[in-house]
Amino acid sequence: MRGRAVGLAAGIALPLVTDIAPDPDTKAAIRLLVARQRMARPHAAPPRVPAERPAALRGTFDATMRDPGSLSDAERLGLEVNPVRGEAVEALINEIYGAAPAVVKLARQAVKE
Predict the structure, then answer these.
(1) How far is CA 95 from each of CA 28, 40, 46, 66, 103, rounded to the nearest angstrom?
(2) Mind listing the pLDDT tens digit for each residue in 39-74?
(3) To which H or E segment does residue 19 belong?
(4) C-alpha span between 39 and 90 (Å, rounded)
(5) Contact yes or no for 6/14 (Cβ under 8 A)
(6) What are the extents of the domains in the chain?
């Protein structure tokens, strides 16, 4: 994910906390700690499902997130719709499970403090 402003304060763009992390391990630990917020409520399939099934599920999800009726229902119910594509969720999960032990240790320490 590329750095970007997360908001404005007195007309000044505020950076993401990862943009000001002092080193790569700290940045990776922060990304690990906020990973859950980056994917909201993911839908998942079990391991070893046939390759065409995730593709079909992702296509249906993407179509639903563009469907005017679904979007109208969400608005009527006061629900925020900010979908994250399946490929991005999969990449994030792979990043989480591939985190270096030193990064996991930093994240654990941050949660304890």
Answers:
(1) 9, 16, 18, 27, 11
(2) 878 888 888 999 899 899 999 999 999 999 999 999
(3) none
(4) 10
(5) yes
(6) 16-40+86-113, 51-83
